[in-house]
Amino acid sequence: MGAVSDTPLKPSLFCTTRWSVVLKAQGGSESEAALSLETLCRTYWPPLYAYARSHGHSPHDAEDLTQGFFARLLEKEHLRAVQREKGRFRQFMLMAFKRFLSHEWERECAAKRGGGATIEPLDTTTAEGLFVADSGRAPSPDAAFDRRWALSLLERVLGRLREEFESAGRAAEFALLKPFLTAESATLDYAQVAAELASTEGAARVAVHRIRKRFRQLFREEIERTVADPAEVDDELRHLVGALAE
Q: What is the pTM of this model?
């Protein structure tokens, strides 16, 4: 049973830093800007949807506002004034969305959904289900946004980890080990893991240790992609872990 490689997946727009996506949307060609916007939308619309719902908007209006926000980013050229020095991408997205809600609500309600840009429809059925399941956990719209942001990062990490196992021909092993990523160490039954993996208990301990270590590495990498200064990573990590704990 080999270790999961620490080598990153092949480069793609979806694996670049969030700030580099913003910069590409600022100055790229029309097609590049559209792809950058799609990347932002696919990754970060669930936290914004959760914020809008927690702020009292209906599911329909929250969908319109979230989709309209991303459409207007390029139409209004809001991203052109953004610099990486602005700080954490999480904070930038929330503040930009708050401004959008404040200044564009009436106009967006009267406008055609999505404005003049072409945005893929949002999977609001899933987002609404997640919002309802999380209802009561976050004491404020800001907290709801942070919690959903952290969960979105975790989903990205799980996706990357799954791809690494699948590319190594170990999809079945990932399915067996995945439940142990979030289990308390004291509760791990390594004999059970060994039986499921058809290995020794010692090998099972190594497999669990490796996947948990890789999971932590990837989570940190995802956070690094959302900050302008590497010195902010630890603070951002603590903040998001706290958001998940609420």
A: 0.75
